[in-house]
């Protein structure tokens, strides 16, 4: 910063500053670090030395053809599967081998490709389940309606309504979740994931089954979430959505990392085009 | 859904009082005997409802937990601890227990002197033992997803039944009789004497009200949401930071504890207990009562459980007990699979929503609503 004021050589200094910042973020500031993660199902190598990072305030997309290992990667990060080798670090501390609920408590939440809402609950209750790990009331205080229970309930309710409002579903709070149209159920799931107060959201194909307008709305909501300071790791097949909102894209093919970079770079990466798309990129995005 | 359930609880208390007054005034107080017994069985069924209906875990061992509670009470209050192989009274510990009044020297019906535990101590021991065994049975089974708990508890129930049948000091096939009354409060004795019937009626149904409000409160809380989320999608619940295995174990142990408490009380009331209480058919009956009551519907389970158990105890189904019982259950399952109270509740909510039709319609008219008509059901 001091050098910037000196005038001469500003360009060089800016470059230097830029690379220093980049280096700093690569060394210490990553929210999620995936280091050399390998996972095999018997003889099938689903993830082969996958290494990348997600930074705070970043939307990172993982793309790749079917069977590239994207869902396996999600399952490893969220603790459903355990990687054979390699480490997953959240804010520098390893979360490899933790149970899914422990990872959820530490600040990673997720949505599911095929929706996994609690079908017998109302919209609001679904989101309130997300508040579970940020409240403490136990069986006894609930059974006896102790002050802690009342405080927790009020807090969970208010926050859930806030998150429902953030995805535009505040007026549906008392609906049975099963009666909502598919697109809105996706948003409920997103609100539920937000309610865990996660630092990182894993979104597994959030646009699948949505129409164009709903996909556009979803893209806006995802950007708003990022702007609130929540990092997002996204698996998605809708290329126009990925190109629109991602800050960085990571490409997988048969479990192997192929490329990583901002959308403009990935869009023109010849390897990505040949391996993943097998043709002209712009024809797909249009 | 967010209404406070205080009104139905008050209504239940009113109904309990009304039944007693009616029975007494019409000179049919003897009905209360079966009502008291059915109250204790209803506690088991309501506890099982918490595990089955809300957390979605099937237990086929609640009869065994009931028997564990009952037998612990019966053994500790009737076995002579001052002679034979277990001469506890002669040890230093026994003398200490005698001094503080946990062990008491007494005389039984036949004039035999013996030393046994007081009912309160036996009750606490029964509760703790039931809880401990529930942890041992539930811990391994509930770490897995699926029907492992049903298998484990079924096996456990069969083992308990065989052990009770083959053990001399639990009375083998005869069970244990001459269990003394329990002075639970000043002037209130849990025993089968007709002079104490009305008080016992209120103790039993008071316990039902307590257990029921406990369950109703838990279901509508953070814990209840966690349990129901486990039922609907264990993987998703886990991803939301809910320690699913821990909750399943907690609620199973809690429910087993309720069964143990009921067993302990009923053993004092009946003055004895037999091995059939631990039989697999008993456990299956509890499960079917929960299913017929509508699973995740504790009020329906309470209704069905108490009424059917009462009729069965009155002998209304005669020697065809199992068949009539099964027939009624099939009828309920066919015509009101969510419990007999559900159609009534639906009717009431239809009436209510008819009164409020206008505001709900305007709330539903959100833009984009018609974009995906009926997609994926």
Strand arrangement across the biggest beta sheet of chain A: 6-7-8-3-9-10
> For the CA atoms, what is the radius of gyration of chain A?
21 Å
Major sheet of chain B, described briefly? 2 strands, antiparallel
Using only C-alpha atoms, the radius of gyration of chain B works out to 23 Å
**Average of pLDDT of chain A:** 85
- Described by the principal axes of the CA atoms, the overall outline of chain B is globular
Helix content of chain A: 40-55%
Largest sheet of chain A: 6 strands, mixed
- The total of helices of chain A stands at 13
Low-confidence stretches of chain B: 360-377
Kindly name the structural category of chain B.
mainly alpha
Overall geometry of chain A: globular
Let me know the number of strands of chain A: 10
- Approximately how much helix is present in the residues of chain B? 55-70%
Question: How many domains comprise the coordinates of chain B?
Answer: 1
- Order of secondary-structure elements of chain B: HHHHEEHHEEHHHHHHHHH
Mean pLDDT of chain B: 86
* Strand line-up across the major sheet of chain B: 1-2
């Amino acid at each position: 910063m001091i050098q910037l004021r000196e005038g001469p050589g500003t360009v060089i200094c800016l470059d230097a500053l830029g690379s220093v910042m980049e280096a700093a973020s690569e060394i210490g500031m990553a929210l999620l670090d995936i280091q050399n993660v390998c996972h095999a199902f018997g003889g099938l190598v689903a993830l082969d030395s996958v290494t990348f990072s997600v930074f705070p305030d970043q939307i990172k997309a993982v793309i790749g053809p079917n069977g590239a290992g994207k869902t396996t990667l999600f399952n490893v990060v969220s603790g459903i599967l355990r990687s054979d080798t390699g480490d997953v670090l959240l804010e520098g501390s390893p979360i490899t081998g933790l149970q899914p609920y422990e990872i959820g408590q530490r600040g990673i939440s997720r949505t599911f490709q095929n929706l996994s809402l609690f079908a017998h609950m109302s919209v609001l209750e679904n989101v309130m389940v997300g508040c579970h790990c940020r409240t403490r009331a136990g069986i006894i205080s609930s059974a006896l309606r102790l002050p802690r229970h009342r405080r927790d309930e009020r807090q969970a309710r208010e926050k859930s309504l806030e998150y429902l409002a953030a995805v535009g579903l505040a007026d549906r709070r008392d609906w049975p979740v099963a009666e909502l149209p598919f697109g809105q159920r996706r948003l409920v799931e997103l609100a539920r994931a937000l309610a865990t107060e996660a630092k990182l959201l894993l979104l597994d194909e959030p646009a699948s089954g949505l129409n164009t307008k709903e996909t556009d709305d979803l893209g806006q909501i995802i950007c708003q979430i990022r702007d609130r300071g929540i990092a997002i790791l996204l698996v998605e097949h809708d290329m126009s959505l990925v190109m629109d909102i991602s800050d960085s894209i990571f490409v997988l093919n048969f479990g192997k990392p192929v490329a990583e970079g901002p959308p403009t770079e990935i869009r023109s990466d010849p390897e990505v085009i040949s391996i993943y798309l097998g043709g002209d990129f712009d024809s797909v995005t249009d | 859904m967010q209404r406070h359930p205080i009104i139905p609880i008050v209504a239940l208390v009113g109904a309990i009082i009304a039944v007693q007054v009616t029975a007494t005034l019409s000179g049919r107080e003897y009905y209360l005997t079966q009502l008291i017994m059915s109250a204790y069985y209803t506690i088991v069924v309501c506890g099982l409802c918490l595990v089955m209906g809300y957390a979605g875990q099937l237990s086929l061992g609640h009869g065994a937990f009931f028997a564990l509670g009952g037998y612990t009470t019966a053994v500790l209050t009737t076995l002579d601890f001052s002679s034979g192989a277990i001469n506890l009274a002669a040890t230093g510990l026994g003398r200490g227990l005698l001094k503080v009044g946990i062990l008491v020297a007494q005389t039984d019906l036949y004039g035999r002197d013996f030393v046994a535990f007081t009912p309160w101590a036996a009750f606490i021991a029964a509760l703790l033992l039931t809880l401990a065994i529930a942890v041992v049975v539930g811990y391994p089974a509930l770490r897995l997803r699926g029907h492992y708990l049903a298998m484990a508890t079924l096996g456990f129930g069969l083992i308990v039944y065989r052990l009770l049948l083959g053990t001399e000091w639990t009375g083998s096939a005869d069970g244990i009789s001459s269990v003394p009354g329990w002075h639970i409060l000043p002037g209130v004795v849990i025993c089968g004497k007709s002079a104490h019937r009305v008080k016992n009626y209120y103790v039993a149904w008071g316990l039902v009200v307590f257990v029921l409000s406990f369950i109703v409160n838990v279901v509508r809380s953070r814990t209840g949401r966690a349990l129901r989320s486990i039922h609907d999608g264990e993987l998703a619940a886990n991803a939301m930071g809910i320690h699913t295995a821990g909750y399943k174990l907690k609620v199973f142990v809690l429910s087993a504890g309720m069964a143990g408490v009921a067993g302990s009380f009923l053993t004092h009331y009946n003055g004895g207990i037999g091995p059939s209480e631990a039989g697999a058919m008993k456990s299956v009956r509890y499960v079917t009562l929960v299913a017929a009551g509508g699973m995740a519907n504790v009020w329906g389970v309470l209704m069905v459980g108490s009424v059917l158990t009462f009729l069965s105890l009155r002998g209304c189904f005669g020697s065809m007990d199992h068949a009539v019982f099964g027939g009624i259950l099939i009828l309920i399952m066919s015509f009101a699979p969510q419990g007999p109270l559900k159609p009534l509740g639906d009717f009431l909510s239809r009436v209510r929503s008819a009164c409020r039709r206008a505001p709900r319609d305007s709330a539903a008219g959100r833009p984009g609503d018609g974009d995906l008509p009926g997609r994926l059901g």
